[in-house]
C-alpha cells in the first residue's frame, strides 16, 4: 500500500514538474504567490485543503489568462504627505516663504555685490586709462622736448670749425652717425628722421667745415650744397658781389661779411683801399694773366684809357673766405669764376672774330641797358648793327661811368640831360666803336645775350630808366617818336606837376 502511495506521489510530483515547466510567465507568478500563502498555512492543513487550494490555483490561472493582468502597487505615504499631496509645478505657501525670503536676500546681496564689483572695475579701468593717457602725455612731452633739443645747436657759442668728410653714397643715417661722432649734432636718429620729413635726400659727398653753433637745419642745407674734394681751411665769412657792380662798388662790397649774424662779425678783414691797390698791382695782374691766359690774354693795357685794367673781369657771385684769407686769394677766386663761366664760350667768341675784352665790354653795356633776357638780346643786336654800320653806340651807361656816376640812382631827367660832350675814351657818342674796356661786371645773362644776340634790323632803342621798359626802332623817325612819347612827354608832365 505504501509502495503504491509512493508511486502515486512520485507520479504526481513528476506530473507537477512537467506542468510547472509548461507554465507561462503569468502562471509562474501566481504559483509563487500561492507558495507564499502555503508557507503561512499551518502544517496541519489537510490534504483536502491542499486539493482545494490546487483547484483554486487552477481556476485563478485560467481566470488570469482570460483577462489582462493587473498588479496592485501600494505606497506607504507619510502622514503629512497624505494630508498635503504634492502637485508638480506648485510649491506650498508654507514651504515657499522661507525659501523666497532667502532668495530675495541672496538676490539683494548679489546685486549689492555686483554693484560693488562694477564700481571697483570702473575705478580700476579709469585708473588704468588715466595712467595710460598720462604716460602718453609724458612720453609726448619728453619726446617733443628731446627732438626740439636735438634740432638746436650743440653749442651756440662755439666758434671753432670741425672738418667732416662725407663718403660718396652715404645714407642720411650714416651721415647722421658721422656728425654725431664729431659732436656736431646731438642725435643721429633725429637727423635721419628730420632728413626724411624734409625730403633732404640730395646730400653731397666731400669735405665740409662745420660748427657746433650751427643748428641741424643749417648743417643739413650745407650738406646739400656740396663739399670740396680735399680738406679746405674753414670758412669764416662770405663776400657777395652783385651783378653789374663796378670795380669801385666791389671794393666796398668786400668789406662787408655777407654771412654775418651779428655786428661783431659784420666786417671782413679786407679794406676798400687795399682792394683797389691790389687790382692795380701790375705784378699781381701779370701773375693772374699767366694763370688765366684765355681770359686775360686781351686785357686792355695800362695806357689804353681804362681806369682799372681788371674792371669787368671779376665775376659777380658770393665768395667764401677763411681765417687766413687775403685779398690776393679772394680776387683770384673772382677771376677764376669768370674764367670758368666763359670757358664754354671761348671757341664761339673766337669763331665770331671777337676778343674776350670786346665781349666783356659790350656785355657791360647790355647789363645796364636791359633788365630781361630778351631785352638784352635785342639790345646786343642793336649794338652789333651799329658797329657794323660804323655808327657810334651812343650809350648813356658809358658816359655815366666816365662821370663816376654809374651805379648810382639816376632820374629820367638826369639821364635825358646827360653830358654827351664829355672828354673821355668812354664817350661813345663821339667815338665810334667800343670803349677800351668794360664798365661793370656783367652777369651770365648779359654775357649770353652778347655772345648769342637776337637777329634784328634795330638800330635804335630808348630805355625808360624809371620803369626799365625798352622801346626799339629801325629808323631815326621811329626812334624820335619813341623818345618823345616815352621820355620827353614824361619829363613835361613831371615839370608841370613840380610847378
UniProtKB/TrEMBL annotation:
Where does the source fall among the domains of life?
Answer: Bacteria
User: Which residue ranges are recorded for the region named Disordered?
Assistant: 30-68
Molecular function terms from GO? lytic endotransglycosylase activity
List the transmembrane segments.
Answer: 124-147
One GO cellular component term: plasma membrane
Q: What is its EC number?
A: 4.2.2.29
Membrane topology label: Single-pass membrane protein
InterPro entries, per the entry: MLTG-like (IPR003770)
Site feature location: Important for catalytic activity: 369
Which keywords appear in this protein's UniProt record, sorted alphabetically?
Cell membrane, Cell wall biogenesis/degradation, Lyase, Membrane, Transmembrane, Transmembrane helix
Catalysed reactions listed for this entry: a peptidoglycan chain = a peptidoglycan chain with N-acetyl-1,6-anhydromuramyl-[peptide] at the reducing end + a peptidoglycan chain with N-acetylglucosamine at the non-reducing end
- Pfam families recorded: YceG
> Where is this protein found?
Cell membrane
Bias (Basic and acidic residues) ranges: 30-40
Spell out the Low complexity composition-biased ranges: 41-58
Asked whether the UniProt record includes Cell membrane among its keywords, one would answer yes
Q: Which biological process, per GO, is one annotated for this protein?
A: cell wall organization
Reported function: Functions as a peptidoglycan terminase that cleaves nascent peptidoglycan strands endolytically to terminate their elongation.
Q: Which HAMAP family match?
A: MltG (MF_02065)
State the family it belongs to: Belongs to the transglycosylase MltG family.
Q: What is this protein called?
A: Endolytic murein transglycosylase
| Source species | Streptococcus sanguinis (strain SK36)
Amino acid at each position: 500500500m505504501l509502495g503504491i502511495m509512493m508511486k502515486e506521489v512520485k507520479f504526481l510530483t513528476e506530473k507537477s514538474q512537467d506542468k510547472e515547466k509548461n507554465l507561462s510567465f503569468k502562471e509562474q507568478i501566481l504559483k509563487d504567490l500561492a507558495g507564499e500563502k502555503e508557507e503561512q498555512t499551518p502544517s496541519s492543513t489537510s490534504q483536502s485543503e491542499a486539493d482545494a487550494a490546487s483547484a483554486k490555483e487552477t481556476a485563478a490561472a485560467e481566470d488570469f489568462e482570460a483577462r489582462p493582468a493587473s498588479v496592485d502597487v501600494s505606497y506607504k505615504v507619510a502622514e503629512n504627505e497624505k494630508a498635503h499631496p504634492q502637485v508638480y509645478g506648485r510649491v506650498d505657501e508654507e514651504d515657499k516663504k522661507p525659501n523666497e525670503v532667502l532668495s530675495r536676500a541672496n538676490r539683494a546681496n548679489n546685486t549689492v555685490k555686483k554693484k560693488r564689483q562694477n564700481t571697483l572695475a570702473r575705478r580700476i579701468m579709469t585708473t588704468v586709462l588715466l595712467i595710460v593717457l598720462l604716460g602718453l602725455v609724458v612720453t609726448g612731452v619728453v619726446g617733443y622736448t628731446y627732438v626740439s633739443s636735438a634740432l638746436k645747436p650743440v653749442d651756440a657759442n662755439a666758434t671753432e670749425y670741425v672738418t667732416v668728410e662725407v663718403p660718396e653714397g652715404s645714407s642720411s643715417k650714416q651721415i647722421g652717425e658721422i656728425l654725431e661722432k664729431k659732436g656736431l649734432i646731438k642725435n643721429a636718429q633725429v637727423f635721419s628722421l628730420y632728413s626724411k620729413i624734409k625730403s633732404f635726400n640730395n646730400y653731397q659727398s666731400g669735405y665740409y667745415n662745420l660748427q657746433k653753433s650751427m643748428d641741424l637745419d643749417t648743417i643739413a642745407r650745407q650738406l646739400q650744397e656740396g663739399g670740396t674734394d680735399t680738406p679746405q681751411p674753414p670758412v669764416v665769412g662770405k663776400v657777395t658781389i652783385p651783378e653789374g657792380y663796378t670795380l669801385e662798388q666791389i671794393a666796398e662790397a668786400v668789406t662787408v661779411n655777407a654771412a654775418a649774424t651779428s655786428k661783431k662779425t659784420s666786417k671782413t678783414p679786407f679794406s676798400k683801399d687795399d682792394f683797389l691797390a691790389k687790382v692795380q698791382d701790375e705784378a699781381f695782374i701779370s701773375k693772374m694773366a699767366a694763370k688765366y691766359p684765355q681770359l686775360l690774354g686781351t686785357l686792355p693795357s695800362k695806357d689804353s684809357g681804362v681806369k682799372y685794367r681788371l674792371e669787368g673781369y671779376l665775376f659777380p657771385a658770393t665768395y667764401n673766405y677763411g681765417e687766413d684769407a687775403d685779398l690776393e686769394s679772394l680776387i683770384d677766386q673772382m677771376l677764376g669764376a669768370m674764367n670758368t663761366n666763359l670757358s664754354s664760350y671761348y671757341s664761339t667768341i673766337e669763331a665770331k672774330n671777337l676778343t674776350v675784352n670786346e665781349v666783356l665790354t659790350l656785355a657791360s653795356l647790355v647789363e645796364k641797358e636791359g633788365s630781361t633776357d630778351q631785352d638784352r638780346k635785342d639790345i646786343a643786336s642793336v649794338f652789333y648793327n651799329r658797329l657794323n654800320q660804323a655808327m657810334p653806340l651812343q650809350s648813356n651807361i658809358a658816359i655815366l661811368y666816365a662821370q663816376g656816376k654809374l651805379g648810382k640812382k639816376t632820374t629820367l631827367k638826369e639821364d635825358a640831360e646827360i653830358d654827351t660832350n664829355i672828354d673821355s675814351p668812354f664817350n661813345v657818342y663821339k667815338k665810334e666803336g667800343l670803349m677800351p674796356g668794360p664798365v661793370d661786371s656783367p652777369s651770365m645773362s648779359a654775357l649770353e645775350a652778347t655772345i648769342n644776340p637776337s637777329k634784328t634790323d634795330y638800330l635804335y632803342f630808348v630805355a625808360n630808366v624809371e620803369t626799365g621798359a625798352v622801346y626799339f626802332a629801325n629808323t631815326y623817325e621811329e626812334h624820335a617818336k619813341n623818345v618823345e612819347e616815352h621820355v620827353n612827354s614824361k619829363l613835361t608832365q613831371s615839370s608841370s606837376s613840380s610847378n
